[in-house]
């Protein structure tokens, strides 16, 4: 009979072939997986029960979510890094990532970069747009490092955003020990290449951060009728409960777009995403 008291809860932070690195009460354990546990089912980010005597993973604990490319589970926060210039501000990418984040039960946090690079006029326009988002989402400038650091504690965080948006630069500011290369082309863009790097969780500021700025290509795996629920600003009661806010009779969302209560670009991006799904 196995002694259950040698079981401890831990988190997989790295997988290298059949060797699993598990963080367990601040201890770093190199573990193998018990035969009956299907190895290919475990991912980085999984919370597991480890037998600390035999150093085997005995059980996978329930998952909150699982993302692909790179494969990682139990993400709590998504830092959506949006640049205001080079690459230009893209409401479409922002809306898409917000939507995916909410669908996967991940809290999105928008982080705006390169506000120092744009002129007063463009800045005014972008800040006005962001003011709308602020009613529904958390937004920080990439200069507000202390506020951003506070969010990380106790959470598992992933970053997303276009290449060049400033993800690595941000991470280096969050933790000076990281020393990530900047201006590096993200591997996730070279989809055809065989350079599939495996994700690793880094212990940063009392939480975990996925070491790769991936997810620029998160699959849009949302159900058509679910998309509307990932837009918190579309929370109106339409004539029909099943209303998808496209052209239905008595649609309060369309009305709200017309009278300026809903940002027009948000609604246009919603329709664009709806098209992408079907
Ligand atoms: N002026 C300015 N440049 C920035 C800012 N954030 C990042 N950069 C620069 O933008 C380039 C791309 O940044 P990087 O962190 O590599 O982007 P990543 O591809 O998202 O990881 C680098 O040359 C950074 O120095 C910012 O807030 N202001
Ligand atoms: Mg980078
Ligand atoms: Zn509607």
Structure characterization notes:
The chain is of the alpha/beta class and 278 residues long. The chain has 3 domains: 4-60, OB fold (Dihydrolipoamide Acetyltransferase, E2P) (Beta Barrel), CATH 2.40.50; 66-210, P-loop containing nucleotide triphosphate hydrolases (Rossmann fold, 3-Layer(aba) Sandwich), CATH 3.40.50; 224-277, Ribonucleotide Reductase Protein R1, domain 1 (Orthogonal Bundle). Helix content is 23%, strand content 24%. It contains 6 helices and 13 strands. It has helices at residues 91-103, 120-134, 145-152, 167-174, 252-258, 264-277, and strands at residues 7-16, 19-24, 27-33, 47-51, 56-60, 66-67, 72-73, 77-83, 107-113, 138-141, 156-160, 201-204, 207-210. Strands 10-9-8-11-13-12 form a 6-stranded mixed beta sheet, with helices on both faces. It has a 5-stranded mixed beta barrel with strand order 1-2-3-5-4. A two-stranded antiparallel sheet has the order 6-7. It is globular and about 65 Å long. The structure holds guanosine-5'-diphosphate, magnesium ion and zinc ion.
CATH topology of the largest domain: Rossmann fold
Shape: globular
Under CATH at level 1, the class of the largest domain stands as Alpha Beta
Strand content: 15-25%
Strand line-up across the major sheet: 10-9-8-11-13-12
Radius of gyration: 21 Å
Helix run count: 6
CATH homologous superfamily label of the largest domain: P-loop containing nucleotide triphosphate hydrolases
Q: Write down the secondary-structure element order.
A: EEEEEEEEHEHEHEHEEHH
Major β-sheet profile? 6 strands, mixed
Distance between the termini: 53 Å
Give the structural class.
alpha/beta
CATH architecture descriptor of the largest domain? 3-Layer(aba) Sandwich
Average pLDDT score: 89
| Residues in helices, as a percent range | 10-25%
When the domains are counted, the total is: 3
Ligand names: guanosine-5'-diphosphate, magnesium ion, zinc ion
Total count of strands: 13
Poorly predicted tracts of residues: 187-196
